[in-house]
Amino acid sequence: MLGNSLMTVETKGNYKSGFVTIWGRPNVGKSTLLNMLIGEKVAIVTPRPQTTRNRISGICETEEGQIVFLDTPGILKPKQKLDEYLVKSARSCLRDADVVLFVVDGTTTPHSDDKRAAKLIRNIDKDVLLVVNKIDIADIPNLDAIIAEYKKLGNFKGGVAVSAVTQINIPILIKKIFELMPENSAYYPEGTVTDQQDKLAIAELIREQVLLSVRQEIPHGVAVVVKEFESRNDELDYISANIYVEKQGHKLIVVGGNGRMLKEIGRKSREGIEGLFGKKVYLDLWVKVSKNWRKDEAALTRFGYK
Ligand SMILES: Nc1nc2c(ncn2[C@@H]2O[C@H](COP(=O)(O)OP(=O)(O)OP(=O)(O)O)[C@@H](O)[C@H]2O)c(=O)[nH]1
Ligand SMILES: [Mg+2]
């Protein structure tokens, strides 16, 4: 289920552990919540919908036990082959979940994609908690009415209103999750944060910087593939990566006049990667055009969406 590193570890009695799938439509704050819950940045976050494209695990440990959170791509109406992959990838994280967090945005009433996401988990045999996020910027006098609308979308085991950014009610959320968690030994050795592969984590940090730098329709058409990642010496890693866009015009935008935009993307990505590995990095970035790759099964596979 979680790759080769998955194992069970001997632990004392009453210890709880299990899998918690973070579910919901795009942009409600699922990845922000994951990073907050585990206290480290393992998932990229941007103000744009459809940021997450793969299942990302994050492991939270307390005295009570270990929770393996699975962040998923936001559920949406598929328009391209890539969207079908996103929904499929999210759904694959439901099967092994002990608990599902249905995350919604408390600043607004349910969206059609909230209803779509709710429908997909309505009849599953899992405990689902309603997590109303972004209450730091919600219209508090209307919040109860908004929550009442979300409650109608499913049969929830309970719920909590939180802010992933300002950390409101996060301990309450963790407590509610443990109430539903089975007694079990730990799935991962103490101190494990994620099972994400290094190359994927690097590609994601670069994609995050592209998403934060460019506007309009380009972000959804960006994919990043790390070609080489090797240690040059004790102090320096070498990384070469391709940024794929769908059109020549998009390439010109990502590169920018005199290569300025690409340089900036490279600088910020490098800082993020150096922070992740605690080592200096030489980052070689190339921008390439792959026409309509989001509709192309072979390209999706090449870019890791399979
Ligand atoms: N004010 C506020 N903003 C939040 C909160 N949680 C997330 N956000 C913002 O909402 C935006 C989307 O956050 P993400 O964590 O990327 O959302 P997501 O649900 O993972 O989105 P997808 O990966 O596209 O499905 C970002 O700009 C976050 O900073 C919150 O509690 N309060
Ligand atoms: Mg996300």
UniProtKB/TrEMBL annotation:
Chain intervals for the UniProt region annotation (G4): 133-136
Membrane topology: Peripheral membrane protein
Alphabetized UniProt keyword annotations: Cell membrane, Cytoplasm, GTP-binding, Membrane, Nucleotide-binding, Ribosome biogenesis, RNA-binding, rRNA-binding
One of the record's GO cellular component terms: plasma membrane
Chain segments carrying region G5: 162-164
Domain of life: Bacteria
Molecular-function GO term, any one: GTP binding
Subcellular location: Cytoplasm; Cell membrane
Main location group: cytoplasm
Region (G2): 50-54
Chain residues that bind GTP: 24-31, 71-75, 133-136
Domain Era-type G residue range list: 16-183
Pfam families reported for this sequence: KH_2, MMR_HSR1
UniProt region (G3), positions on chain: 71-74
Any Gene Ontology biological process: ribosomal small subunit assembly
Annotated stretches, region: G1: 24-31
UniProt function note: An essential GTPase that binds both GDP and GTP, with rapid nucleotide exchange. Plays a role in 16S rRNA processing and 30S ribosomal subunit biogenesis and possibly also in cell cycle regulation and energy metabolism.
Sequence similarity: Belongs to the TRAFAC class TrmE-Era-EngA-EngB-Septin-like GTPase superfamily. Era GTPase family.
Quaternary context: Monomer.
Protein name in the entry: GTPase Era
Species name: Candidatus Scalindua japonica
